[in-house]
TrEMBL record:
Residue span(s) of domain Quercetin 2,3-dioxygenase C-terminal cupin: 151-230
One MF term in the entry's GO annotations: metal ion binding
Family: Belongs to the pirin family.
Needed cofactors: Fe cation
Keywords: Iron, Metal-binding
Positions bound to Fe cation: H57, H59, H101, E103
Domain Pirin N-terminal: start-end pairs: 10-119
Cofactor binding, note field: Binds 1 Fe cation per subunit.
Keyword Iron: yes
Protein name per UniProt: Pirin protein
Length: 234
């Protein structure tokens, strides 16, 4: 079964200093038909204008992945981590028993564009943790590059998920990903155009794929996509 969610159907909020598009129910946006897929609980596409950002706030018992697409994001947390994340950087924060953090754009003129992803942990009450890594665009071209999960080179995470990124252009060979029994795939197209299992997607569109043997990505035009291989709700 393949379910399409168009970009225009997502939730939206304008914070004044930035904007958020919500793929699933989050904060003041609530849609009972879109509460998550498997271990994927939330996916937000955020734009933070210069001098804007999320002030210090708490999290608990959630695995939070941030994928920076453009600009420079300053992160600070109660574990003592501080630094700037740039395009291509991926951050994994395990909230566990509790963590405070903030995210700001201190640039003079360049917005930050990022994806923030919430994933349900395998177990509650773990120790908070942090990791980040840079993944070059060139390494995403024409392949499914693991960003987070148990695959070699990926950031580890306390959740039943493997998150891949890919970039596909016209003329690139199709990519196929096998779906194991009992698992499902969520495909989010960040930008460009892409055909997935015969469905043509535009930037911001997404597919939930269940009870299928594989997912095939082809016909990319400046396509940048994330593929989530997800376990069931823990």
């Amino acid at each position: 079964m393949i379910t399409l969610r168009k970009s225009s159907e997502r939730g939206f909020d304008d914070h004044g200093w930035g904007q958020s598009h919500f793929s699933f129910s989050f904060a003041d946006y609530y849609d009972p038909a879109h509460m998550g897929v498997g271990t994927l609980r939330a996916l937000m596409e955020d734009t933070i204008e210069p001098a804007g950002g999320f002030g210090t706030h708490p999290h608990r018992d959630m695995e939070i992945v941030t994928v920076v697409l453009a600009g420079e994001l300053t992160h600070r947390d109660s574990m003592g981590n501080t630094g700037v994340l740039r395009a291509g950087d991926v951050q994994r924060m395990s909230a566990g028993t509790g963590v405070l953090h903030s995210e700001y754009n201190h640039a003079a003129s360049t917005p930050v564009r990022m994806l923030q992803i919430w994933l349900l942990p395998r177990s509650r009450g773990i120790a908070p943790g942090y990791a980040q890594k840079h993944f070059a665009d060139a390494d995403r071209r024409g392949r499914l590059l693991p960003l987070v999960g148990e695959a070699d080179g990926a950031l580890s995470i306390h959740s039943d998920v493997t998150l891949y990124a890919t970039r596909l252009e016209e003329g690139d060979a199709p990519l196929a990903h096998r779906i194991a029994t009992g698992r499902r795939v969520y495909l989010h197209l960040i930008e460009g155009e892409l055909e997935v299992n015969g469905v043509r997607l535009q930037g911001g569109d997404a597919l939930t794929i269940e009870s299928e043997d594989e997912v095939v990505l082809e016909g990319g035009r400046a396509a940048h996509a994330l593929l989530f291989d997800l376990g069931a709700h823990p």
